[in-house]
Amino acid sequence: MTYLAWRTLRYRRLAFIATFAAVFLGVALIVACGGLMETGIRLAVPPQRLAAADVVVSGKQTYGVPKKDPQDTKDIKSVPLAERYWIDSGLVGKIQAVPGVERAIAEASFAATVVRNGVPVIVGTQSLGHDWESAALGSYRLDGQPPAQPGQVVLDRAVARQAQIKVGDRVEVAVGGGVSTFQVTGLAGARDEMSHSALFFSGGDVQRFDPHAGSADAIGVMAKPGTDLDALRGRIEKTLNDRKLVVLTGDDRGVAEFPEAVGGRAQLVPLAGVFAGMTVFVSIFVVASTLGLSVQQRQKEVALLRSIGATPRQIRKMIRREALVVAVGAAILGCIPGALLGPLIHWLVAEAGVISPVVEFHQGVVPYLIGPAVGIFAALVASYVASRRPSKTRPTEGIAEAAVQRKWVTWPRVVFSFLFFAGGIVLIIVTGVALRGPVASATAGPAVMCWAIAIALISPGLTRLLAAMLSVPVRAFFGLSGYLGTINIRTRSVRVAAAVTPIMLAVSVALANFYLQTTQNEAAERYYSDNLRADVVLSSATGGFPADTVEKLRSAPGVEDASAYVTSAGWINKPYDGSHVESPWPLQGVTAASAASITGVRTIEGNLADLRGDTVALPEVAGKNLNVGIGDQITLRLGDRSAVDLRVVALYPAKEGYETIMLPAELLAAHSTTGLTRQILVTAAPGTDRDKLAASLREKVGGNPGTLIGERDTIATFAERTKTQAWVNYLLVALVAGYTMISVANTLIVATAGRRRELGMQRLIGATRRQALEMLSIEAGMITIIGVVLGTIASIATLLPFSAVVLGRPFPSGSVFIYLAVVAGAAVLAFAATLLPGHRVMLTRPAEAAVAVD
């Protein structure tokens, strides 16, 4: 059987090239997804500003949310914090006393931006101010003198070069919500490239401008020469003995500089896992479809082997070895594009904002082991499925039905199809009854897979049924060519189903995921920001606005009202709230005097005008679930881990699953990373021209450089995370759908090339090349229509319940052009993969083609 397997590979090259391509591309995608997952798990962030510190002490950027029992400290869910968690700078003395520590320095950062001619000068993603003492933690070289007293500053050399500033000059700096003038005493140049611009101030200015003075981002530790860093880390951990602190070494040190990287892990790991799983599922289907068609085309050959004494076991062994030989080579070579595709996807994901660009991509040995293993496993599963029926067929029956296979119904197909249909129905019920808001999408992936598998298992029967329905109009419109095409589709329904199935799979996966994302985006926009009434939005590019800016804007001509606007996320600690374990509550900070007019919220109890000091306005459903009302107190854990006791002053209705907690803007801003208000919402007085209003506002904020004036679509909301994830979802779904579409081409090319004998016979009895190509075109069109119809049915079964839950209507949101693009992609591939090999077959002389081996 091994000899026969090798001989088959030699003379059936096209079929096995198709199988090779399917395994090759599948392994490449799995290796790439494995690299993304490893990157998220390892979270290697090389330090920049803290590169000279051997050990870094920082706050843990995650919060443990109790899952069920608030007293259970073990059964918790670790969720990233929305803001930076600051630590007590007084820990420096405690750390300094640890054996092996030569020096410990507190590192604090705050928004500070050089302004030149009224324009902010930023090199990198943002500009931050620091205490000069912390410059020792980085690789900075100073030209000039350090800032010894208030009013002095050392500039980043790159910033000074761009702003054309030299030592001794005076420079304006936007800091602390205002603009101050400083004398430049020196320029600091870093040996390595930095992601942020750095400005260094004296200790007195840091106390004056840092909103979180007295706290530190991190504490850098220089070890004495010869000290074992792992042992030193252990001693520091034992000395501090605080679960809210982490002691970092190596590439982990960068997390203290870039805490947003921790939030990226929470998104990247599950995202990579979901799409790796989807790729595994699709690859098994694709390889099974391609290999199954190849075995179907060899049914006469298998029947002849059976008739001369080959046992079913030997037939299965032969097919398995053929698949194994092809899969091993494809799996090994598939690692090469996987190694290139992984870094590319990581770069795109970082550009989209899902993960910080400073996170290094890691693709170790594990993805290169898992990817080929999955590819080989998919080929073995496919060979088992493809060889099962031919190996059991009696020799005489096999020869009789070799030309046209009609039998496809088996008990395993029926049973599993029923089970997957039942699973899809159960998921519809769960989505409609038990899930609300964004979490309703949790059942979407499994649902579309259940429906796709169920339809694929009975696709030969559905293909025959739909072909019969299409035959009348096709014959009426295309005449003889239509008659031949419909006859071929109906009589070859089993083989045609092998081409229909990947089209159905690609269409269902693409439509379900694209429209789920567009629907979720609309829902998030509608319920998180539609209640915010803003004709003009002011945003600060230099950290934030002074506290009196809102009052200044209220007096501007054409302004009806204005409110500070701050966003964050947090958890309700007391009373215990189990509704937001997986993700935090969205928090919105607004100005009390303008809260009602800016938000448009009509309270059912209390008044938003009372939203001052330590107060909170809760969604009505939260009040009912927690059994709290007006005047009651709750404890809210804010985005920086701070716990604050708040008095409930208002309850208001909100869409279930998209509720937001409202707080005073000044309270929420004080617990944000910048400590300042970064956006202000303005409503226009009736009849006011927007351009005139914008000009009026620009005049009022002329003293705040870096102020951007935009429309309401620039409002920062909790839905921004959904938008970011959407872009990445589109990318990864496009990759999986593209892989599936390639398999469509593989299958159709093999199917068409395997019909040389049939097409040669048609031409011998008088058919012209044009008539044969017309017949193939009709078949390609019908295959496309059947695949698109079945894929649409599978996606609709997923989209309808989801849309009903999140939008209150059964129709998903999204452009019809998404549907047209998916259909067009399927059609183009189907026609190209049918007509191009068909045209090549036509180049063979009819007499030679008529006696060729299929």
How does the helix and strand content classify structurally?
alpha+beta
The rough form would be described as elongated
Q: Could you name the ranges where pLDDT drops below 50 across 5 or more consecutive residues?
A: 400-404
Rounded mean pLDDT is 82
**Secondary structure: helix percent:** 40-55%
Rg measurement, Å:
33 Å
Number of domains: 4
Oligomeric assembly: single chain
Provide tags for this entry:
854 residues; alpha+beta; 4 domains; ten-stranded mixed β-sheet; six-stranded mixed barrel; 26 helices; 26 strands; 53% helix; 17% strand; elongated; MacB_PCD; transmembrane; transmembrane helix; Lipoprotein-release_system; membrane
Topology readout:
Blueprint: H1 2-11, H2 13-42, E1 55-59, E2 62-66, E3 76-80, E4 87-88, H3 91-96, E5 101-107, E6 109-116, E7 119-121, E8 127-131, E9 140-144, E10 152-156, H4 157-163, E11 170-175, E12 178-190, E13 197-201, H5 203-209, E14 215-216, E15 218-223, H6 229-240, E16 245-248, H7 254-257, H8 260-297, H9 299-307, H10 312-352, H11 365-392, H12 395-400, H13 411-433, H14 444-457, H15 459-491, H16 493-529, E17 536-540, H17 549-554, E18 559-574, E19 585-590, H18 595-599, E20 605-606, E21 615-619, H19 620-626, E22 633-637, E23 643-652, E24 661-664, H20 665-670, E25 679-684, H21 690-700, E26 707-710, H22 720-753, H23 756-764, H24 769-807, H25 816-842, H26 846-850
Helix pairs in contact: 1-10, 2-8, 2-10, 2-11, 2-22, 8-11, 8-16, 8-22, 10-11, 13-14, 13-24, 14-16, 14-24, 15-16, 15-24, 16-22, 16-24, 16-25, 22-25, 24-25
Protein name: Putative ABC transport system permease protein
Subcellular location: Cell membrane
GO cellular component, one term: plasma membrane protein complex
